[in-house]
Amino acid sequence: MNVGECYIGWAVDEDVRKRGGSGGLVVATLAAALEKGLVEKVLVLKKHSTYDAEPVLTSDPEEVLASAGSLHAVPAALSKKIPYGVKVAAVGKPCDIRGMYQMALRQQFNLDDTYLIGLNCGGTLPPVPTRQMIRVMYGIDPDEVVHEEIAKGNLIFTTRDGQEHAKKIDELEEAGFGRRESCRYCIVKIPTNADLACGNWGVPKDKLGAATFVEVCTEKGVQLLTTAVDAGYVQVEPASDKSKEIRKKVEKAMLDLSAKWRERIFVPIENRLEFYREALRHCILCNACKEVCPVCACGEDSKCTTMPSSLETHNHEFYHLIRFLHIMDSCVACGMCTDVCPAEIKVSTLQARYSLPFQEEKGYVAGMKLEKPPFFEVE
Amino acid sequence: MSEEWEPKIIMFCCNWCSYGGSDTAGVARFQQPPTTRIIRVMCSGRVDPTFVLDAFLEGADGVLVTGCHIGDCHYINGNEKTKVRYEFLKRVVEEFGIEPERLKLEWISASEGDKFASFVKQATEDIKKLGPSPLKPEVVE
Ligand SMILES: Cc1cc2nc3c(=O)[nH]c(=O)nc-3n(C[C@H](O)[C@H](O)[C@H](O)COP(=O)(O)OP(=O)(O)OC[C@H]3O[C@@H](n4cnc5c(N)ncnc54)[C@H](O)[C@@H]3O)c2cc1C
Ligand code: SF4
Ligand code: SF4
Ligand code: SF4
C-alpha cells in the first residue's frame, strides 16, 4: 500500500458494516488502531439522537465502534479536544481536520502523534431548524426519525415505522432550510490533508451504503489502513479508474455549487461601516463564538475578550475587530461561531468576508498544511 | 467649532528613527501642522494592531505608524513584522468602511526631518478632506 492510492473498503464485522455511515470502515480502522496500540485514545462523536452528539475521547474500542454512522445534523467542535502528548486518532469533516491543523500549528498538540481520518463533506444541517424543517417540509415528527441519509441530492429521513421520506436538498434550501450557511460556500469537500480521506463518492453502485472510498494521503494513512487490514477489521480492494473519476466529478460539481452560493451570499455592500454596526449591534459579548472556534488557541486571557470594556459601548466593536484581525489568516469558515451565537449574528459569514478573499489573494487555503502561511515568514 | 476643523491624528514613532526624525524636523524648523499626538515606542514592531484599532474607536481621525527603513531596524527585523501586521490591519480597517487614507505606514530615518514634516503635512491634508472619522464615538469631538 502506498501514499496516493485509492481503495474501496468496508468493515469485516457484518454488524459494524451495517451500522456504519457507509460500510463502517472508519470506525473499524479507528478501533484497530486502538487494539493494535497505534494510538492511546480515539476521538469520535457519541450519538445521543439524530440531532445531538458529543465528542468523546475514548480508549474503549467498543465505544469507537458504537459511534458508527454519519450525523448530518450535528456540527461538533472537535479540534480543541485533542490533548497534548497523547497519541490520538481522530475523525472529522474537512473543516474539523483543518481546525486540527490550526491547533497543531499553535502547538496545542503534536501532529506527528496524531492520526486523522477525514470524511468528505457535502455539508451539515443545523439541528434546531432541521427539526422544524422535518415538521414543516416533510410533515413528520422529528422525534420519529431513526435514520438520515443523503443520496443523489436528496435528504432522506427514515421513521420508526420503516418509511423513507425524501426531498431534494435544493428545494429545501430554496425554502430557507437545508445546509448551514457556511457549508453552502465551503471550499474543501475532500479532506486530503487528513491521513485517510473517506467518503461515499465513487463507491460502485452494488456496494453503495456498504463501502467507503478511501484515499491514502500520507505514510500515517498507510500505517492506519494496513494495521486495520492486517488485524482483520477491514477489507479493501483497489478503486477502479471509474470510481476515481466519479468521485472527482461529484467533488467538482459540489465546488461549483459552493462558488454559486458564494456569489449569492457575499453581495457587495455600500455602506460597510453601517452594515457591520447593524450586524453586530446585538452582540452581548458572551465570547461563545471565540470559545467554539476551532482555530483560536488563545485561551482565557485573549486580547479580544479582555480588551473591550463592557461599560463603554462604543468599544464593543473592539472584540470583533480583534477577532476579525486575528483569525483572518486562519479561519476555516466552519460556521460554528454562527451556530452558537445567542444573538443570532452570522458571525462566520462576517468573518469570511475578510478571510476568504484574503486567503485567496495569498494563494493558500487555511488549515491544509502544517506550515505557517507563507507571508508570515520573517527572516 | 467655529474655527476650521483640525483632525486629531495619533502617530506612532520608533525611538530609534522616526522619533529622531521629528526632532530633526523641529531643529531644522520645517513647518508642519500641529495635528499629531506622538506616541513613542521602542520599535514600530511594538505597535500592536489593537493600539491602532483602539485609537480609532477612541476618536482618532487618522493613525500613522512610522519606523526605520527596512534593513535598518535596531532590533534586526521588527519593522518586517510591522509590515506583515500592517497588511492585516489595513484590510480590517478598510473592510470596516474606514477610508484607507486614515491609516498610513511610512519609514522615516532620524535624519529625514524634511520627510517627517512633509509626511505629516500630506497626511493631515488627506484626512482633512475626508472630515471626522466615521468611527468617532458620539461623545468625542
Ligand atoms: C456530515 C457529513 C457529511 C458527509 N457528506 C459526504 C458527502 O457529501 N460525500 C461523501 O462522499 N461522503 C460524505 N460523508 C462521509 C460518509 O458519509 C461516511 O462518513 C464515510 O464514507 C465513512 O463511512 P464509514 O461507514 O466508514 O464511517 P463510520 O464507520 O460510520 O464512521 C463514521 C465516523 O464519523 C464520525 N461522525 C459522524 N458524524 C459526524 C459529524 N457530523 N462530524 C464529525 N464526525 C462525525 C463518527 O463519530 C464516526 O466515528 C459525510 C459525512 C458526514 C459526517
Ligand atoms: S463547513 Fe464545509 S466541511 Fe464543515 S460541515 Fe460545512 S461543508 Fe462540511
Ligand atoms: S471564526 Fe467562525 S467560521 Fe472561522 S474558524 Fe472560527 S468558528 Fe469557524
Ligand atoms: S457569540 Fe454572538 S453574542 Fe456572543 S460574543 Fe459572539 S457575536 Fe457576540
Automatic annotation (TrEMBL), chain A:
<dbReference type="GO" id="GO:0051536">
    <property type="term" value="F:iron-sulfur cluster binding"/>
</dbReference>
<feature type="domain" description="4Fe-4S ferredoxin-type">
    <location>
        <begin position="322"/>
        <end position="351"/>
    </location>
</feature>
<keyword id="KW-0479">Metal-binding</keyword>
<dbReference type="InterPro" id="IPR007525">
    <property type="entry name" value="FrhB_FdhB_C"/>
</dbReference>
<dbReference type="InterPro" id="IPR007516">
    <property type="entry name" value="Co_F420_Hydgase/DH_bsu_N"/>
</dbReference>
<dbReference type="Pfam" id="PF04432">
    <property type="entry name" value="FrhB_FdhB_C"/>
</dbReference>
<dbReference type="InterPro" id="IPR017896">
    <property type="entry name" value="4Fe4S_Fe-S-bd"/>
</dbReference>
<dbReference type="GO" id="GO:0052592">
    <property type="term" value="F:oxidoreductase activity, acting on CH or CH2 groups, with an iron-sulfur protein as acceptor"/>
</dbReference>
<keyword id="KW-0408">Iron</keyword>
<dbReference type="GO" id="GO:0046872">
    <property type="term" value="F:metal ion binding"/>
</dbReference>
<protein>
    <submittedName>
        <fullName>4Fe-4S binding protein</fullName>
    </submittedName>
</protein>
<keyword id="KW-0560">Oxidoreductase</keyword>
<dbReference type="Pfam" id="PF04422">
    <property type="entry name" value="FrhB_FdhB_N"/>
</dbReference>
<feature type="domain" description="4Fe-4S ferredoxin-type">
    <location>
        <begin position="271"/>
        <end position="303"/>
    </location>
</feature>
<dbReference type="Pfam" id="PF13183">
    <property type="entry name" value="Fer4_8"/>
</dbReference>
<dbReference type="InterPro" id="IPR017900">
    <property type="entry name" value="4Fe4S_Fe_S_CS"/>
</dbReference>
<dbReference type="InterPro" id="IPR045220">
    <property type="entry name" value="FRHB/FDHB/HCAR-like"/>
</dbReference>
<keyword id="KW-0411">Iron-sulfur</keyword>
Automatic annotation (TrEMBL), chain B:
<keyword id="KW-0408">Iron</keyword>
<keyword id="KW-0411">Iron-sulfur</keyword>
<protein>
    <submittedName>
        <fullName>Hydrogenase iron-sulfur subunit</fullName>
    </submittedName>
</protein>
<keyword id="KW-0479">Metal-binding</keyword>
<keyword id="KW-0560">Oxidoreductase</keyword>
<dbReference type="InterPro" id="IPR003813">
    <property type="entry name" value="MvhD/FlpD"/>
</dbReference>
<dbReference type="GO" id="GO:0051536">
    <property type="term" value="F:iron-sulfur cluster binding"/>
</dbReference>
<dbReference type="GO" id="GO:0046872">
    <property type="term" value="F:metal ion binding"/>
</dbReference>
<dbReference type="GO" id="GO:0016491">
    <property type="term" value="F:oxidoreductase activity"/>
</dbReference>
<dbReference type="Pfam" id="PF02662">
    <property type="entry name" value="FlpD"/>
</dbReference>
<feature type="domain" description="F420-non-reducing hydrogenase iron-sulfur subunit D">
    <location>
        <begin position="9"/>
        <end position="131"/>
    </location>
</feature>
